[in-house]
Amino acid sequence: MLNYSSTQNAWGNISFYKKTKTLEGGVYVPNLDEIWDYLKEQFQTQFTRIGYQTWIDSAKPLSLTANTLTIEVPSQLHKEYWEKNILTKIVENLYAHFGVEVNPVLTVAGTGADTPQEPAAPTKTKRSNQVSEAEERDFLTNSHLNSKYTFETFVTGTGNQMAHAAALVVSEEPGVLYNPLFLYGGVGLGKTHLMQAIGHQLLSNKPDTKVKYVTSETFTNDLVNSIQTNTQERFRREYRSVDLLMVDDVQFFADKEATQEEFFHTFNDLYEDKKQIVLTSDRLPNEIPKLQDRLVSRFKWGLSVDITPPDLETRIAILRNKADAENLDIPDDTLSYIAGQIDSNVRELEGALIRVQAYATMKHAPIATSLAADALKSLKLNDATNGLSIVKIQETVAKYYHITVSEIKGKKRIKNIVVPRQIAMYLARELTDASLPKIGIEFGGKDHTTVIHAHEKISQSITDDQDLKNNVAELKNLLKR
Ligand SMILES: Nc1ncnc2c1ncn2[C@@H]1O[C@H](COP(=O)(O)OP(=O)(O)OP(=O)(O)O)[C@@H](O)[C@H]1O
């Protein structure tokens, strides 16, 4: 039986105590499934499709004990969103429908910590973000965004769920919560896609918004052109009058003093006007070499969130989406096979699917697993003739330094292992086409930023350490044989 006074703190601002039933003592006691089904039904009408998928589909009802409804959400960011926007709705919806008072409690997946939540202040009803197809076409053709990079076509999984949720929040409330939003991660993992999805969504919500997407190189080129043509005023007006500025791959700001200077002022102007800034990079701000401290600190003001390589399930879902979009008839086991072959880069994953498709056309055969295996085998053969395997590099470096391959791939931090490990990573980066996350995985599941660091460390050291330079040259020679 519920003791009302025990929930008095949590519900201090709600005045319907006398009318409520308790889950134990009331006339009708809905169970967990009924409650959840009802809530999902309600939320389907209260959220956009993407909003529903992001916030509701990703949550799991765990238990209903006494009047406590425990719900698991995937990340801290989801928890914050739920606290701000959803908890009150749950209380209101359940009270209105079942006449019961339920205390929702959130827990973040993987932490096991249950924290009772106070209901947040009621939020304004979100206006619908539906636009007509004509409007949609219009803004897509008028903008400089890739029409395919939307939230609808972005598949979420463990490696990108938090980045996706943050991106969605930014598109709903630009300039408010996460400013700047800094998305970072390895090559081909969807940073550009997610960033542009923010632009699309914002334009869809408010078609008159001024949205600008550029790569960091375009920013530099625009700046240089404006200096050459004496049109700096125009350049500044253009960059400082937008509602959303997205700059892709800001790691290329490294070493560009004039660009950094100009971007510093652009950033400040936009930030002060509460305009949203979204940045992407292959690494964290403080890991970008020769980036001015004042930019590093500004880039960290908002939220930095990483995207890691997708797990198998997500890779299969990405392929399924892609196959459906292209009207390709591919059996599930074939998609699983392809997803099993490419594990660290979504761009390569898509490339593999295209390759299988082309191979099927060439052979006049339907797409099946054996055909996919043939198509991807020849891909691997091509790779092998072009480059080296990471395994061979690890074996050669281990032998050269009289240590084992497992030490190279391990975590021991003693100098006579760390240096060969960094050399092996350096050589893997220099001599193979493997992506940074792929190299990280091959070195015992290390993060791609560790590979970046190793590469930078060795590149730097060989410029002033003649012995090291000779060793690396010798290793390169050994690997050529
Ligand atoms: N989760 C995803 N769902 C659907 N498509 C994805 C996903 N992640 C990546 N892609 C696709 O993979 C390709 C590469 O993504 P994108 O260009 O956004 O990567 P990136 O991280 O910006 O890479 P780079 O570091 O090279 O700039 C794109 O075609 C994109 O649509």
UniProtKB/TrEMBL annotation:
Which stretches does the entry tag as region Domain I, interacts with DnaA modulators?
Answer: 1-119
Q: Which residues bind ATP?
A: G188, G190, K191, T192
Q: Its encoding gene is what? A: dnaA
* SMART domains referenced in this protein's UniProt entry, alphabetically: AAA, Bac_DnaA_C
The AAA+ ATPase domain covers: 177-308
Record-linked InterPro entries: AAA+_ATPase, Chromosome_initiator_DnaA, Chromosome_initiator_DnaA-like, Chromosome_initiator_DnaA_CS, DnaA_C, DnaA_dom, DnaA_N_dom, DnaA_N_sf
Oligomer status and interactors: Oligomerizes as a right-handed, spiral filament on DNA at oriC.
**Where found in the cell?**
Cytoplasm
User: What broad class describes the main subcellular location of this protein?
Assistant: cytoplasm
Instruction: Give the family per the record.
Output: Belongs to the DnaA family.
Annotated region (Domain IV, binds dsDNA), positions in chain: 361-481
Gene3D superfamilies hit by this protein: 1.10.1750.10, 1.10.8.60, 3.30.300.180, P-loop containing nucleotide triphosphate hydrolases
Kindly state which keywords UniProt assigns to this record, in alphabetical order. ATP-binding, Cytoplasm, DNA replication, DNA-binding, Lipid-binding, Nucleotide-binding
Please state what the protein is called: Chromosomal replication initiator protein DnaA
